[in-house]
UniProtKB/TrEMBL annotation:
Source organism (scientific name): Populus tomentosa (Chinese white poplar)
Domain Helicase C-terminal: 425-565
Compositional bias per record (Polar residues), positions renumbered to this chain: 15-39, 125-134
UniProt keyword Cell division present: no
CDD domains: DEADc_DDX3_DDX4, SF2_C_DEAD
Keyword list, A-Z: ATP-binding, Helicase, Hydrolase, Nucleotide-binding, RNA-binding
Top-level division of the source organism's lineage: Eukaryota
PROSITE patterns the UniProt entry points to: HELICASE_ATP_BIND_1, HELICASE_CTER, Q_MOTIF
A GO molecular-function annotation: RNA helicase activity
Protein name: RNA helicase
Compositionally biased spans, kind Basic and acidic residues: 105-114, 584-593
InterPro entries in the cross-refs: DEAD/DEAH_box_helicase_dom, Ded1/Dbp1_DEADc, Helicase_ATP-bd, Helicase_C-like, RNA_helicase_DEAD_Q_motif
């Protein structure tokens, strides 16, 4: 149960944490202090922002700390010309242009590995259980867990109980992970036992490590057993594991995490993701950077982290072969299998040279898993275990949720009121990190502009921004240089940004699962957070799923929303609650209406078919669309 405080207090508390944690990064930064508008010498309006000067050189395969004028005419992610202080030393670039890169991992010439922890002096201090590990374990003590499938391996309580290998265990300690989170307690033994897995667990509950640890540990074991690897330097590379995610930023984040977990294990992790808009990309593929990065990749990859579009491109150009894949992980698996991505995923998994289910191990993870998507996903799995941790498809009750009725034309001034109050309650006048979701890219640009001219340093992330702008915006937000990030759904899933105090759904999404992922950018790893949604008649179809979700998460549902919910006709395609709207998400194999043919879904493996069937998926725009006419998908 939440200890309720006002939203401003919550935001202020979180800002206090932010201040502590981010003080070095923020040191002297412009735009986060006091209520006055910052000095903005070089503001560039949104319509000029994507004009990348043609003289802008291709990014190098490695870049150290950059100077402040290397970005398209404006300095910080804020576009205010704020001096940049948000580069992490030693961070391999991969360029801002997408493409490839082992981002700072291996010095491939000499096979010397850059320490991703920056603790080269090796004075390792094992953290005590009291020490702040980023996870508030008490919040997870009584979390409900449900598993189904044959012979489910028992969960563990500690990392020590699992044979992950010394090097990986040391990295877990370096990450200050004292004990496994609930999803890790269950998922890691299942995966180590070689079983396929479909796992649902709440946002921010540690799913990345849950799929990375077994993969890294498995590859280490293969190395110990002297497994044959293809020769390095070949034009085609043969990764042993593939991790797919829907956005570039999420792929980069998974890569960074995986690189930490695999430090000094001998396991090599490389990321490949989409980059600039297609016309620039074609041009860019001819640039030396692309060639250099491909060469880098040719020096070896064990785990390839990728977005689907870029991977298809690489497969078609025969730069990557999936023949040797032993592990396939789909993060945000329900998104990866919805209308937008499903054909690409089928191509990668079924139509290229990847080993069949049963010959590889497949792990699907998400916080939401609608039954229709579970059914689709079963095509990719063999005799799998379904794991549900927490109220799946639900939000965590660590997030205080507010819904406010705001007419469309009043949204901006209402947002302004929230931000002013938040600033007044903030720590030392600092703005708490606030993530504002809007529906369209244009809407993001225009709100960002409006916030900036009204004294709130903001930046934005959406699909029309270049990759380097997107990365820069994220950095600028993380460091607090621009403590407001206006985003489309491209930032809704997976991004782990510490100290986000407040998520504002300026425009509510059309899909309740998207709402769950969006608000999950706060209240992560056991910390509290606040989510405010602006609701009006245009969101009537969300009234019912939203009020149900809030009730489930012990939130106060305003009377007016309940009235909307009782009026709203329900049963529309998009707002089915994940897993059937009850605790645990539900294994679709247990639902007789999904088992019409009486085939043995517990047997998994290829019997699932049924895409486009009368189960409802694929009809009326299908699940997970949510983009109105003229709105292009925010996804990569
Ligand atoms: N065992 C652990 N101990 C302490 N911190 C952990 C542990 N496992 C993960 N974390 C931290 O918890 C945070 C959230 O983890 P992660 O990003 O994997 O969540 P997630 O479940 O994938 O969220 P989402 O559904 O939003 O993608 C990260 O900062 C991660 O480093």
């Amino acid at each position: 149960m939440n200890t309720r405080t006002s939203w401003a207090d919550l935001a202020a508390n979180s800002a206090a944490e932010s201040t502590k944690a981010g003080s070095s990064a923020n040191n002297g930064s412009v735009g986060t202090t006091s209520g006055n508008a910052p000095t903005r010498p070089t503001y560039v309006p949104p319509h000029l922002r994507n004009r990348v000067p043609s003289s802008d050189p291709p990014a190098a395969a490695y870049s150290g700390p950059a100077s402040s004028n290397d970005r398209s005419g404006y300095g910080g992610g804020s576009r205010w010309g704020v001096p940049r202080n948000d580069y992490r030393g030693g961070y391999g670039s991969g360029g801002g242009r997408g493409g490839w890169g082992n981002r700072g991992g291996w010095d491939r010439g000499r096979e010397r590995e850059v320490n991703p922890f920056g603790d080269d002096d090796e004075t390792e201090q094992p953290p005590s259980e009291q020490e702040n590990t980023g996870i508030n374990f008490d919040a997870y003590e009584d979390i409900p867990v449900e598993t189904s499938g044959d012979n489910v391996p028992p969960p563990v309580n500690t990392f020590a109980e699992i044979d992950l290998g010394d090097a990986l265990n040391q990295n877990i300690r370096r990450c200050k992970y004292v004990k496994p989170t609930p999803v890790q307690r269950h998922a890691i033994p299942i995966s180590l036992a070689g079983r396929d897995l479909m796992a649902c667990a709440q946002t921010g509950s540690g799913k990345t490590a849950a799929f990375c640890f077994p993969i890294i540990s498995g590859i280490m074991k293969m190395q110990d057993q002297g497994a044959q690897r293809p020769p390095r330097g070949a034009r085609t590379v043969y990764p042993l594991a593939l991790i797919l995610s829907p956005t570039r930023e999420l792929s980069m984040q998974i890569h960074e995490e995986a690189r930490k977990f695999s430090y000094q294990t001998g396991v090599k992790v490389v990321v490949a993701y989409g980059g600039a808009p297609i016309h620039q990309q074609v041009l860019f593929m001819l640039q030396p950077f692309a060639v250099a990065s491909l060469r880098e990749l040719e020096r070896g990859v064990d785990i390839l982290v990728a977005t689907p579009g870029r991977l298809v491109d690489l497969l078609e150009r025969a730069r990557v072969s999936l023949q040797m894949i032993k592990y396939l992980a789909l993060d945000e698996a329900d998104r990866m299998l919805d209308m937008g991505f499903e054909p690409q995923i089928r191509k990668i998994v079924e139509q290229m040279d990847m080993p069949r289910p049963g010959l590889r191990q497949t792990m699907l993870f998400s916080a939401t898993f609608p039954k229709e998507i579970q059914r689709l996903a079963s095509d990719f799995l063999s005799t799998y275990i379904f794991l549900a941790v927490g109220r799946v498809g639900s939000s965590t009750d660590l997030i205080v949720q507010r819904v406010e009725f705001v007419y469309e034309p009043d949204k901006r001034s209402h947002l302004m009121d929230l931000l002013h109050a938040q600033r007044a309650n903030g720590v030392q006048g600092k703005q708490a990190l606030t993530l504002v979701f809007v529906e369209t890219k244009k809407g993001a640009d225009s709100l960002e502009h409006w916030l900036c001219i009204n004294g709130f340093p903001a930046t934005s992330i959406h699909g029309d921004r270049s990759q380097q702008e997107r990365e820069q915006a994220l950095r600028s937000f993380k460091t607090g240089n621009t403590p407001i990030l206006v985003a489309t759904d491209v930032a809704a899933r997976g991004l782990d940004i510490p100290h986000v105090a407040h998520v504002v759904n300026f425009d509510l999404p059309n899909d309740i699962d998207d709402y769950v992922h969006r608000i999950g950018r706060t209240g992560r790893a056991g910390n509290s957070g606040l989510a405010t949604a602006f609701f009006n008649e245009g969101n009537a179809s969300m009234a019912r799923p939203l009020s149900e979700l809030m009730l489930e998460a012990n939130q106060e549902v305003p009377d007016w929303l309940s009235r909307f919910a009782s009026r709203a006709s329900f049963g529309g395609g998009k707002n089915r609650r994940s897993g059937g709207g009850r605790f645990g998400g539900r294994d679709f194999r247990r639902d007789s209406s999904f088992n019409r043919s009486n085939s043995d879904y517990y047997g998994g493996g290829g019997s699932g078919g049924g895409y486009g069937s009368s189960a409802g998926y694929g009809s009326s725009g299908g699940y997970g669309g949510g983009y109105g006419p003229g709105v292009t998908s925010a996804w990569d």
